[in-house]
Amino acid sequence: MGFEDKLSKLKEISDKLDGKVSLNEGLELFQSSLGLTKECLEELNDIKGKINVIKAEMDKLLGESEE
Amino acid sequence: MPSRVLTVSSLCNYIKNVFEDELILHDVSLMGEIFEFKVSGYKTFITLKEESSLMPCLRFATTENFEVGANVILFGSVSYSPKTTKVSFIFKSIKLTGEGNYAKQLKELKDRLNLEGLFVSPYKLPSLIKKVAVLTSAEGAVIHDISSVLNGNAFMPELDVYSVKVQGEDAPNEIAQILKNINVKLYDVVLIARGGGGAEDLKAFNSEVVARAVYDCGLPSISAVGHETDYTLCDFCATFRAGTPSIAARKISDINSSAYNLMCNYIVNIKNNINRLFNSAKNMTTFYLQKSLAVLERSTSKSRERLNFYSDMMYNNLTLKIENKKVMIAGAEKKVADKIFLQAKEKENDFMQTVAILERTNPLKLLKSGYAHISKENKPINSIKSVKKGDMLDIVLLDGSIKAEIESKNSFKE
């Protein structure tokens, strides 16, 4: 599942919780949302690392061109 | 060997006097075509031309603008300056008599080219100029001026200089030929440049062949001919007209700086957008989780509330029931107590009655009132029939007993 799909799933869970669910069902849904959130954050951290690398390269290129 | 030796000043002064004394040279009208026209401060400088002759004219006042090529008559006097050794015509007034031939022809050509649409260049200056074809004289200061302006730029373009004649009869064809043969794939822009000069000097850039060559050269073009106030057909047919070669160089420099700044802005935008995208994704991720948690907590809290409510309700109900029972029990207790009391009272009454009866029938009371208990052989005697004379009787009195013998008996019936 891609990041956007996971995010959609989180929204789906959030919307379900807004509706009529039993306490047990709600707890289950919340637990699965926790898992999805963890995966999303891990992916985001990975992306952030890649962005920082690209930014550093861009800054390096700009710095070289100014010389 | 010359017989006379003159000093410079004496010679100059002599020449000056010759001019001053010659009446024909004073208060005369001078006719010619304006070759050059310039107003500087409070002075007007005009160069009049007629065929190949030129006469510099000066007025110590400002004058309305006249076009180069116009035919005019100036009224004034010839003057010689020993300091500058220049002959000039000092004029007091100027009158337009008509257009000069050259000016007329130039105007007609300009109108014709304009009608044909040559004054609207089919090209636009690019957003980045990497290589420039420069048509100019290799001998003048123009290329130096251009280079020195561009040298200060971080993105200095490459300059390919095509050395051309920039004045004279051969200049128009030479310029046009180079423009026609230029390899458009190699360059981003062609720059046609020459320094300042009079109308005659700039004539090549007012020729039809150069104007058409500039328009048809296949590249965006920059024309930088003469001074800022000089406008030539080359200027009109180019994509961009710069007042001077330095201005042209500055334009190229500005274009490249803008491109660089635009690139930097794009990079900053990209960085900002990436950050925004990233933060938005992160916020959305934690948003749903937090929202879910809030909903769950709310739901749990509501359930707890309901639980508390029911539990309170049950407690209250129970308490009420217990209270009711207490009241009932208290009521029942009282009833029982009342009943017992009643019963006890009844019993007491019975007892008292019995006591009263007993009191009434107490033999001791009888004995006290003088009665005695008579028994014979431990058998009570309550009739005279039970005894006879001589029986021994036991007579119990209140404070003792008597043994007595019956002497006689009497019946109440006799």
Tertiary shape of chain B? rod-shaped
Number of helices, where a helix is a run of at least 4 consecutive DSSP H or I residues of chain B: 8
* SSE string of chain A: HH
> Strands of the biggest beta sheet of chain B: in what spatial order?
1-2-3-5-4
What does this structure look like?
The complex is a heterodimer of chains A (67) and B (414). By secondary structure, chain A is mainly α. Helices cover 90% and strands 0% of the residues of chain A. Chain A has two helices and no strands. Chain A has helices at 3-18, 23-66. In chain A, helix 1 runs antiparallel to helix 2 (23-66). Chain A is rod-shaped, with a radius of gyration of 19 Å. Chain B has eight helices and 14 strands. Chain B is rod-shaped. In chain B, strand 4 and strand 5 form a beta hairpin. Chain B has helices at residues 8-21, 101-116, 142-151, 171-181, 208-215, 233-237, 245-360, 363-368, and strands at 28-40, 43-50, 53-59, 70-81, 86-99, 131-136, 158-163, 189-194, 221-225, 240-241, 373-376, 379-380, 392-397, 400-405. In chain B, the strands form three sheets. Chain B has a five-stranded mixed barrel. Chain B has a five-stranded parallel sheet with strand order 7-6-8-9-10, sandwiched between helices. The longest helix of chain B has 116 residues, at 245-360. Chain B is an alpha/beta fold and 414 residues long. In chain B, helix 4 (171-181) packs parallel to helix 5 (208-215). The chains are: A mainly alpha (67), B alpha/beta (414). At the A-B interface, helix 1 and helix 2 of A face helix 7 of B.
